[in-house]
Known about the structure:
By secondary structure, the protein is an alpha/beta fold. The chain has one domain (2-216): Rossmann fold (3-Layer(aba) Sandwich). It has seven helices and eight strands. Strand 5 (124-129), helix 5 (139-148) and strand 6 form a beta-alpha-beta unit. The protein is globular, with a radius of gyration of 16 Å. The model is unreliable at 1-10 (pLDDT under 50).
Amino acid sequence: MKKNNSTFLKSLYGSYAFGMKILGFERSISNFILSLNLEYPSDSKILDVGCGTGIIGLTLMNERPNSTLIATDLNSDLLLRTKQNAKKMGIEESRITLGMSDISQPNKAKSITNPSTFLEIDKFDIVSIGATIGYSKSQETTITTLLDMVKHNGYFINIEMNENLIGKLVSKKYCYPILPLSKMENIIKSCGFNVTSVPISTFPANLTRVCYIARKI
């Protein structure tokens, strides 16, 4: 069973990475992030949780030349793709730290270069995530943990699966349970954030994703 599950997950991650690149999701999400015109410091500390191919965190830090990024994911192959994408974008390797982390405990991560080293997960100017919360053993706990890692006036950005027909079909394909978005929004507000639901206008991300931008007040 464990072997079959491992094979399934490897296939799942592989198809995800393929889709992000070939079908234009990376470019689509990157263009959307750039259109937001967020206000955050040049030397921002950014955490991209469940980073996948890293496009959210890398786009955010590429806009701020002195920023640093911690990118975490459960899959080491995806972390290597994040590293490759950073190189293609001309981002210095020294500004990026990659770590293995389970979405159920997003405040704990081990360095990918030294598995015995725990990363320093502290407070960040931006905590970003993209359609990963659904894999948590406790989605509400994961959300509150992520929000707790945001600095005052900092941002929580969640590019989540939407609740339309295509979003539901894709979620089913990837065995991704969607927390009702209204409930997610209420949790964010209860933790002291202003939150806005921003429709994604760029294709093809607009078919399956919606963006929640929350700022800590």
